[in-house]
Design goal:
The complex is a heterodimer of chains A (295) and B (272). Helix content of chain A is 80%, strand content 0%. With 295 residues, chain A is mainly alpha-helical. Chain A has a single domain, classed as MetI-like fold, CATH 1.10.3720.10. In chain A, helix 5 packs antiparallel against helix 10 and helix 8 packs antiparallel against helix 10. Chain B has 272 residues and is of the alpha/beta class. Chain B has 2 domains: 166 residues, 3-Layer(aba) Sandwich (Rossmann fold); 68 residues, no CATH class. Chain B is 35% helix and 21% strand. Chain B has a 6-stranded mixed β-sheet with strand order 5-6-7-3-8-9, sandwiched between helices. In chain B, strands 2-1-4 form a 3-stranded antiparallel β-sheet, with helices on one face. In chain B, a hairpin with a 6-residue loop joins strand 8 and strand 9. Chain B is globular. The termini of chain B are far apart. Classes of the chains: A mainly alpha (295), B alpha/beta (272). Chains A and B meet through helix 2, helix 9 and helix 10 of A and helix 2, helix 4 and helix 5 of B.
């Protein structure tokens, strides 16, 4: 053991170098690929899928299965889309505003209820299964009551959007808190975090991945409830996506109808991918939930 | 073979309720007949049975035992996370507990994990950054501040845990099989590291392990616990001079002797 003979200092120095040697061997190498390359890699399969879908659609139209004034081709829908662009954007803006308002309110309610139910045994046995029950209830079923309560007005739509989204958000938070590894709670307690501090510094961040999944699902429910609401609760003099769908059906304008449907689809995809998808991916990467070897 | 004499010290066969020889009254950890029973009357499960133990200031004590010896229960009692159902646990000083597995917060960087400990100690924000830098220097992790726990090796993660524990300003370090999940080479290096920190920082360490050689490599004293319920069955002072190496003969010889005792203890449970 030559190291011990050289005295303590040399031994410590050797330990330093051994430790840092292992550290560098143990830390993963990061591969660097350019931003453009990554965007292209993510984009081309989607573009291909869209091209295939459009081709299929055109083929069905050419087959003459339905007359063209009932089922128009991509070209006619595109023309209608361009022609009604400003009306549709106007309608989309109204609908989105309603969606975000309802979702924001559901976020507050769902988070508070979820946090309380997850941490309180009595509350959980009282309303835990009720929340899941509400989640499975089709939001359209709420409309008759909502109309009686709020008349054919914004309030009825808002009410149903909140009821659609809040249970999913609450459930996401509850399952996120349930899945926290006990060791993290112990570690937090050892560090001196109690009650609100434990919640703020340990419980909430630890539950975040599942909570974001809950938000994503909550948005999907809110969006569906919203469109159903706009079809049923037609508020006079206001353009909205649901109202546009109904108006185009009444006019028998298939091309216009499909153009509005595509707007709805695109908004759904954009919100899901840009807002929730990106947040989810960022969180998963940060929390080390992504297999770096595969990524 | 002078080290072998150590094991000829009197064995403590019965759990002593009086003060053990050599234990000063100013010991930072004093357990007197501490018992812990989980559950209620009908289906009560005793986890610890009348454990008496003194840990002197600056001492490195290793607790050794097979499964079900109540090691974690004992640490929880000393850390103040739990109360004994009988007997007393007196702790004089600030304790902190270090875990075996990944107990770092995965959403915080190395910097953030250590800083949170300071924040919860109400260290003012201006002083935190500098203190984190010092602590990371102590565990040889300068330059890794911005890494996330999942980007580090197991050994590095345990050193971040060490830095986080030291951030609490504790003088009593409780360790719950902290190196159990590491590969042998990393573990050996961390033995050197914890020994250095113990010496430099004047810590009192209560170290739980089921690895006999690790206990002999590190401890001033090895305390053997029985299983179901946990009870102190024997104590072995380790008089092998430091620095020790885990593969050296004196360590191996004493470890072999303690292993025999441990096996005998395990065999007792095979009979019934």
């Amino acid at each position: 053991m030559a190291t011990t003979e050289n005295g303590d200092g040399a031994r410590t120095d050797l330990l330093d170098r051994e430790l840092s040697g292992l550290d560098h061997l143990d830390t993963a190498l990061q591969s660097a690929s350019s931003r453009a390359a990554r965007i292209w890699a993510a984009a081309w399969p989607k573009l291909l899928a869209v091209a295939l879908a459009l081709t299929f659609w055109q083929l069905v139209v050419w087959s003459g299965w339905k007359p063209e004034y009932v089922l128009p081709g991509p070209r006619a829908v595109w023309d209608s889309f361009v022609e009604n662009f400003s009306t549709n954007m106007d309608a989309a803006w109204t609908t989105l505003q309603r969606g975000f308002k309802g979702f924001a309110f559901a976020l507050v309610i769902g988070t508070i209820v979820g946090a309380l139910v997850a941490r309180n045994r009595l509350l959980r046995s009282a309303i835990g299964s009720l929340i899941t029950g509400l989640q499975t209830m089709p939001s359209v079923a709420w409309f008759p009551l909502a109309i009686l309560l709020f008349k054919l007005d914004e309030g009825a739509i808002f009410f149903v959007v909140v009821l659609g989204a809040a249970p999913s958000i609450a459930n996401g938070l509850i399952s996120g808190i349930d899945q926290i590894q006990p060791i993290l709670l112990r570690a937090g307690t050892v560090l001196g975090a109690r009650r609100w501090k434990l919640f703020r510094h340990v419980i909430l961040p630890a539950a975040l991945p599942a909570f974001v999944s809950g938000l994503k699902q909550g948005w999907a429910f809110a969006w569906r409830s919203l469109l159903a609401g706009e079809l049923i609760v037609n508020i006079g003099g206001k353009f909205s996506l649901g109202q546009q769908l109904d108006a185009n059906r009444q006019l028998g304008d298939s091309a216009g109808l499909i153009a509005v449907m595509i707007v709805i689809l695109i908004i759904g995809i954009l919100v899901d991918a840009l807002l929730f998808g990106m947040a989810e991916r960022k969180i998963r990467r940060r929390y080390g939930l992504v297999d770096t070897a595969a990524a | 073979m002078t080290q072998q004499r150590a094991v000829e010290h009197p064995r403590v066969d019965e759990p002593a309720s009086e003060v053990l020889p050599g234990a000063g009254s100013g010991a930072p950890i004093v357990l007197r007949g501490a018992s812990k029973v989980y559950g209620h009357a009908g289906e009560a499960v005793p986890a610890l049975d009348r454990v008496s133990l003194d840990v002197r200031s600056g001492e490195f004590v290793c607790l050794l035992g097979a499964s079900g010896c109540g090691k974690s229960t004992l640490l929880n009692l000393v850390a103040g996370l739990d109360r004994p159902t009988a007997g007393s646990v007196e702790v004089d000083g600030r304790t902190t507990l270090m875990f075996q597995e990944a107990a770092l917060f995965p959403w915080l960087t190395v910097q953030g994990n250590v800083e949170l400990a300071l924040k919860l100690q109400r260290v003012p924000k201006a002083k935190r950054r500098e203190r984190v830098r010092e602590l990371l220097q102590v565990v040889h992790l300068e330059g890794f501040e911005r890494k996330l726990p999942h980007e580090l090796s197991g050994g590095m993660r345990q050193r971040v845990q060490l830095a986080r524990a030291l951030a609490q300003g504790a003088d009593i370090l409780l360790m719950d099989e902290p190196f159990g999940a590491l590969d042998a080479m990393t573990r050996d290096l961390l033995h050197d590291e914890i020994e250095r920190l113990w010496r430099e920082q004047g810590l009192t360490i209560l170290f739980v392990t089921h690895n006999v050689r690790e206990a002999v490599r590190l401890g001033d004293r090895v305390v053997l616990l029985s299983s179901r319920p946990g009870r102190v069955v024997a104590e072995f002072p380790v008089v092998i001079p430091r620095p020790r190496r885990i593969e050296s003969h004196p360590v191996a010889d004493l470890a072999a002797l303690i292993t025999n005792e441990l096996r005998e203890e395990v065999r007792r449970h095979g009979d019934d």
